[in-house]
Every structure is written in structure tokens, then in C-alpha cells.
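for the writeup, i need someone to sanity check this before i put it in the appendix. the sequnce is what the collaborator sent (i think, or maybe the updated version? ugh). structure was predicted straight from it, no edits. if anything looks off just tell me and ill rerun, i have time this weekend
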Amino acid sequence: MPLIPEEPQIHESAQGPRATPASGRTAPTPRPVPGPRPAAPSRPGRPGPVRPTPPVQRTPRDVAAVPGPSAPAVSAASPSVSASATPQVQLIPASAAGALDAAEEAVDLLLESGRAPGEVLVVTTGEQHPWAAHELSFGEASYWAQHDSGDDVFYADASALDRAAVRPVVVVAVNGDSAAVAATALPAARARAGALLIVCGEPQQINSVLGAGI
């Protein structure tokens, strides 16, 4: 008796993917950043093999308002706040090894929001930022001339804070293991923040210096 091939069965599960919303997932929330300001040149990049001579104004960043992964927010602050006022303080939890990366992300957010690079000072309590180490290799006079020009983000070691001028935003990377250095650097950094102080580091250590109310 000849075999009759069975008719193919179409299972409901074989149909195409259904456009159903994924449950239990929350879309990343854009982090608040300081309000928009006129576009400005980008911050200094990491050191390259040859230093530009003479220093030239850097080209503007290509900014895309795309929310990144969920992370602690960078608080907004008015640029009109005077240096004598108490700045807002934002804590971004990070290990000593990850503090510099967290500070870099905070700077990116500030610049993408429209903050002028010259409004931002970045301070390290441990190893120097590569840009600072590179520029200092050409002499302190040239290095501090860039600080005084106020055209770009400036990177400084905590030991140089007594020479740094007040800027609207100060970002501190607590990337060193010395609690004594952090205890000295954080109050000095807050004194130089005109509107906003962002501190990236161990929350317990930071709170013990600046107070638990941040």
C-alpha cells in the first residue's frame, strides 16, 4: 500500500516574532546635565606622539543627544552662581581604579550638554591624567599658560590646586589610595567650584570628608 505523505503542519510558534513589549525592562534614563550653552571647542584629548606647536583651538565636538547606560546623574547647576556661594555637590560612586574613567564620563556629559570646556577643571588625587603628564613634560610655564587662557578643560594634580583658579565646574577623580590626600584635596576642590563639584570615588571616604549630606 503506497504511503501518503503527511501534510506539513503549521505550528503557531513558527510564525514571525511578535511585537510585544519586553516586560520588566526599563529604558535608560537620560542623565540631567547643565543647561545648554553655545557650542565650544572640545576638551584636550589624551597625549599624542607630537605636541601641536603653537597650541591651537581645538575643533568642536560632534554632539549627539543619545542617552547612555544607566549611571549616577550629573546634576544641573546655574552658570551664574558666584564662587563665594556653596556649590552643588554630586557624588559618583567609583573605585580608585575606576575613578578617572568616571570623571571622564562626567566631563563628556557636561560638554555634550553645552558646557564650555573652559568652565571645567578636572583634579586627580592619585596618578596624573595623561594629558597633564604630557603637557608638563614641555615645562610648567606652557602648562599653566593653557590654564590661564581658560579655553579648554584643564587637568591638574591635587597638589596644584593652590594655583588653580575658580571654575564653574570642578570634577575630582579620587584615584589614589591616600586618604590624607583626599581629605585635603576635596575641600580645596570645593572652594574652587563656582557652581558644581562632581566627586568620583568611594562614597564612604568622600562622605567622611565632605559630609553625609551630599
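Strands lie at 88-93, 120-124, 154-157, 167-173, 193-201. The first strand starts at residue 88 and ends at 93.
thx in advance!!
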